[in-house]
Amino acid sequence: MCTLSWLAGEASGFTAWFNRDELHTRGIEQMPQVRVSAEGVTWVAPIDPDSGGTWLMVNAHGLMVCLLNDYVTPWTLPIGTQRESRGRLVPMTVALDSAQAAVILVSQQNLAKTPPFELVAGDATGGVARMHWDGASAQCTEGPAVRFPRSSSSYQPDLVIDERRKNYPVLVTEESLEEFHRAHDMERGASSVNMCRPDASTRSICRVKVSETAVNLVYDPQPWPGAPRSENETSEFSVTRIKPLEQRSVGIVT
Predict the structure, then answer these.
(1) How many C-alpha atoms does 147 have within 13 Å on its Cβ side?
(2) pLDDT of amino acid 250
(3) What is the pLDDT of residues 38-89, one digit of tens each?
(4) What is the pLDDT of residues 211-237, one digit of tens each?
(5) Using CA atoms, how far apart are residues 90 and 61, in angstroms rounded to an integer?
(6) Under 8 Å between Cβ of 23 and 155
(7) Measured distance CA(127)–CA(164) in Å, rounded
(8) Whole-angstrom Cα distance, residue 201 to residue 218?
(9) For residue 28, what pLDDT band results from cuts at 50, 70 and 90?
(10) CATH of domain 2-253
(11) For residue 99, how many C-alpha atoms fall within 13 Å in the half-sphere facing its CB?
């Protein structure tokens, strides 16, 4: 249950928004943590405590990778096996620098025990790619074929996704997409992009901005009633965008 928007930068880079919607029965998500990969690449990601994985990552190369569950495609766990979490997939990409490389890497994994999902990646050159795992095979697309917004819902998915797409701004700007991701309509309930229903709600809104020199992640927890949540306030993480052999650095603005 999530919604993703992506806006290419005029020169290089991009800005993206991601609303993570989750059932109240799942644990309190953890605010982003700054880590360094074995290859020395700084990356930032919030953490899902139930799986130990994440739904969104951005690294110092300016690569963003995020994951949305697919609740439409029928799927059955192979007999005699144990389900594998989708949250483990995004961290596989933390040292990469291109959207295409990210979807290729994940598509090459053994996903037989993984429920259906779509993984979307954007990079600092303006490249964007998408991979859809339907439980049997992986389909990859890139460039203009990846259309936004991307959205998912465990509740009446066809209706909810269609409603969200209808409310996508005609004029796509940073301001209109910020408004789109924060919009909540009490009458529309689950169909709102910033959603709330009796058993689930939007837990957080992340905004990722990649420019020529920096990578920025703003993490904003949403305080909906009934949702288990921490007392964390909005936090901003800034990472110096790197090129090969350049020094990496990271800071946090509170």
Answers:
(1) 3
(2) 44
(3) 999 999 999 999 889 999 999 999 999 999 999 999 988 888 999 999 999 9
(4) 999 999 999 999 898 888 777 789 999
(5) 15
(6) no
(7) 24
(8) 19
(9) very high
(10) 3.60.60.10
(11) 23
Residue 126, both tokens: 């303006």
Residue with tokens 């495609």: 73
Count how many residues are written for the chain.
254
pLDDT digits (tens, 9 = 90+) for 129-177: 999 999 999 999 999 999 999 999 999 999 999 999 999 999 999 999 9
Three-state secondary structure along the chain?
CEEEEEEECCCCCEEEEEEEEEECCCCCCEEEEEEECCCCCEEEEEECCCCCCCCEEEECCCCEEEEEECCCCCCCCCCCCCCCCHHHCHHHHCCCCCHHHHHHHHHCCCCCCCCCEEEEEECCCCCEEEEEECCCCEEEEEHHHCCCCEEECCCCHHHHHHHHHHCCCCCCCHHHHHHHHHCCCCCCHHHCCCCEECCEEEEEEEEEEECCCEEEEEEEECCCCCCCCCCCCCEEEEEECCCCCCCCCEEEEC
Residue 113 has, within 13 A of its CA and on its CB side, a CA count of 8
In which residue are the tokens 């203009």 written?
Answer: 144
Question: CA–CA separation, 116 vs 111, rounded Å?
Answer: 9
In the chain, where are the structural domains located?
A: 2-253
